[in-house]
């Protein structure tokens, strides 16, 4: 069975609470998120979400992951599966690491496992990683803009 991990990170000049407020506000994703085009549901452990992802230049994919962890200001993690366990599973993780009151390290990663990981590895590394990086930058911009707006 194949396994593959993609991990990206970015430093954001905003508080952990501000980054979490942007990350957990699924309704606003269509306004700013270039990777996760739509997220329906609540970021609550045990909930099932309806997610549509579309890395730039790629076709949209829809899936219904289950939330595994949700700690405001710290972590959001879900598990998505293609058809049945063991074919193609993806555990997607967002970690907010507080560096100071006004700075965090945001890490987005996904651990893939299953029979289709090998054949899809190049696509994952190219498209999914690009999607993560694009989302990280958009999250940074939005969280830092909200901070700026509140100071004005």
From TrEMBL:
<dbReference type="Pfam" id="PF10604">
    <property type="entry name" value="Polyketide_cyc2"/>
</dbReference>
<dbReference type="InterPro" id="IPR023393">
    <property type="entry name" value="START-like_dom_sf"/>
</dbReference>
<protein>
    <submittedName>
        <fullName>SRPBCC domain-containing protein</fullName>
    </submittedName>
</protein>
<dbReference type="InterPro" id="IPR019587">
    <property type="entry name" value="Polyketide_cyclase/dehydratase"/>
</dbReference>
């Amino acid at each position: 069975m194949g396994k593959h991990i993609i991990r990206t990170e970015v430093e954001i000049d905003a508080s952990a609470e501000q980054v979490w407020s942007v990350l957990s506000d699924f309704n606003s994703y269509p306004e700013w998120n270039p990777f996760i085009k739509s997220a329906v549901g609540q970021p609550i452990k045990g909930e099932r979400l309806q997610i549509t992802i579309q890395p730039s230049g790629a076709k949209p994919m829809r899936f219904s992951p289950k939330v595994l962890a949700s700690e405001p200001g710290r972590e959001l993690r879900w598990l998505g599966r293609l058809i049945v366990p063991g074919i193609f599973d993806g555990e997607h993780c967002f970690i907010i690491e507080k560096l100071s009151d006004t700075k965090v390290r945001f890490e987005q990663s996904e651990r893939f496992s299953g029979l289709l990981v090998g054949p899809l590895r190049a696509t994952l590394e190219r498209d999914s990683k690009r999607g993560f990086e694009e989302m990280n930058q958009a999250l940074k911009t939005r969280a830092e803009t909200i901070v700026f707006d509140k100071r004005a």
